[in-house]
Each structure stands twice: as structure tokens, then as C-alpha cells.
Amino acid sequence: MRNSNKLVWGIGIKGNLYQTTENGKKLPVYTLWSNMLLRNTKLHWDKYPSYAGIGCSENFKFYSFFYEWCQEQIGFGNIDEKGKTWCLDKDLLVRGNSIYSEDTCVFIPHRINMLVSLCSGNRGEYPIGVSWNKHTSKFVAQAGVGGGEKRYLGSFNTPQEAFLAYKTFKEALIKEVANEYKEQLDCRAYEALMNYEVNEND
Q: CB of 146 within 8 A of CB of 153?
């Protein structure tokens, strides 16, 4: 009982209302909660600077609230075609959001999560999806399509032209994949994906 009062990652309150383990193994919902809290810590920010400043709502600091919230969410506990559990996403509904909360989070497949994940931290000097080919003196547009595969979209004279090719392809791909999962997605997530716009600084 005493350990239940110890803060998880210095933030979360585990409490005694719901179990955290079963048959000696941590429950997936508890691991999800603990990992979410970890992203709110300086320890994680130092290792992954792109997460700096991430926080969570007061309600999400309580395991009991998070546990009950998850049970009511569309997509919670879903497993995709590759055996991956659906992701807890904090910024699909609200672009640029840095707070995990009951109002901003939805569960989406890993494939979709990778399609909409931002990579501004390691993109370089050109818009997202654009690189310079010194051998051809052209700007190249490429887009990830999942599974580590990239699609070559052409060579262009300007980075703006290359980005437009990337943007057009990526937005169409996101809509295509969203429609594949339409019957399984939270309607808010589906709507956000159908209206998703790719920006140069993503």
C-alpha cells in the first residue's frame, strides 16, 4: 500500500483503484500511462529534445482517471495488421499541441502515426520531403510510405516545386490510409486526417 503513494516519474499518482499488473506482468494500459508520463520529464527531454516542454493534464496524472478514460476511447487496445498496438496521439486533433489530455488525445494506428509525425528536428535546411542532389543540381522530392520505404516523386528546379509535389502526394496518401481505417477510427481522428495539411516546417 505504501508504494501506491510514490509518484510515478515524479508526476503520476498510481493509487489503489485499478491493478497495474497481471500474472506478474505490467498491464498495457499501465505501461501506456507510465510511458506518457515519462515523456513529460527532463530525463526524456534530454534524450529526445523534440519532446522538450511536453506535459499532461491534471486528470492524466491519475492512473485511475487515465484507466477509465482509455476504456471509453475508440481504438484503445486495437492491434494493427503488423501486431502493433495503436498509438496514443496528442497532436492530430490540435496541431502543435504539447499537452497529453482527455480532450486532445486519440488512438490511431502506428501506420497513421508515422505518416503525420513531425520531423522538423532532423529535416535540414529545405522544406520537409525535399533534398538537394549535387550530382544533378536538382531538388528531389521523396515521401515515406511506411515500412521504411520511400517514394521518389521527381526532381525539380526549386525547393518550392519539390515541396509542392511532396505536399500533394503526402496529403493524398494520408486521406487514402485514413479511408482504409475509417470504420475503426474515432470520427474526430478521421475528420482531422481528411483535413490534414502538410506544411513546409513539419
A: no
- CB-based contacts of 24-27 (< 8 A; 24+ apart in sequence): none
List pLDDT tens digits, range 155-201: 999 999 999 999 999 999 999 999 999 999 999 999 999 999 999 88
Cβ contact 111:125 at 8 Å:
no
Residue listed under C-alpha cell 475503426: 184
To which residue does cell 476504456 refer? 71
Grid cell at residue 140:
528531389
CA atoms lying within 13 Å on the CB side of residue 184: 17
What does the alpha-carbon distance between residue 154 and residue 112 come to, in Å, rounded to a whole number? 24
Q: Could you tell me the pTM of the whole model?
A: 0.89
Domain segments of the chain: what residues? 110-202
Closest CA to 64 of 28, 20, 108, 106: 20
d(CA 6, CA 2): 7
For residue 39, which of 26, 50, 30 has the smallest C-alpha distance?
50
Tell me the β-bridge partners of 150.
144
Beta sheet of 138-146, edge-to-edge order? 130-133, 138-146, 149-156
Q: Which helix (H) or strand (E) holds 140?
A: strand 138-146
